[in-house]
Amino acid sequence: MLKESEQLFWAKGNIAAKIIRPFGQYTFLLKPPGGVWRFRLHVSMSEFDNQCHVIDLTGNGSRSEYQYQGAGKFLVNTMIQFTQKHLAPNTVVFGEMSSQGDPSGRQGIDCAQNRVAFWESFGFKKKEPRQGQPPYCHPFSATLSSLATRRGKLFNECACLVSLDEFKLTDRTDEFDRYPTSFTNQLT
User: Fold this and answer.
1) Is 92 strand, coil or helix?
2) 13 with 154: CB under 8 angstroms?
3) Is residue 101 within 8 Å of residue 107, measured between CB atoms?
4) DSSP code per residue over the chain
5) Which of 56, 122, 131, 161 is the most exposed place for a label (fewest CB within 10 A)?
6) How far apart are CA 60 and CA 131, in angstroms?
7) pLDDT tens column, 59-83
8) Taking 50 as the threshold, does the pLDDT of residue 121 lie above it?
């Protein structure tokens, strides 16, 4: 597990990723070529009660110019590897898919179906909403041992599946945002 003062950092070409732990939660971040830290996956993990709560995945939704370019797949792959390394196989991983903000009509239905297919492709199962839950929220869960990573391309430049061994442990700073890509390439 990471200390709050540490981060795991990875870079290849113009793409960078890092795992940080602000305020006890883990955040998996991804920066596209020439971009900012746009894609985020927030997760709360507890090794004491065998639970991992996927709080939010942002930046790659139905209205994003980056949809279908592997950003979400990269972040979930990295999260699965990280949790499998640090938590017990019987850990329950759960969260909610939200269709809030999706377009209306057929396009909105397509977005919701794509979101379900995305999470199910890793091994998650969609659950029925709990009573009193908003109609746009759809719970999902799986045991950590039933989750699997997926292959694919990230921004048509590299693989969506990068081993955690390729991430470097560093002090947590934002110094990588201030340096050109050539500086971050020295870490790989």
Assistant:
1) strand
2) no
3) no
4) ---TTEEEEEEETTEEEEEE-GGG-EEEEEE-TT--S-EEEEEEEETTTTEEEEEEEES-STT-TTTTSSHHHHHHHHHHHHHHHHS-TT-EEEEEEE-TTPPSHHHHHHHHHHHHHHHHTTT-EE-PPPTT--TTEEEEEEEGGG------EETTTEES---GGGSEEEE--SGGGTS-HHHHHTT-
5) 131
6) 29
7) 887 777 888 899 999 999 999 999 9
8) yes
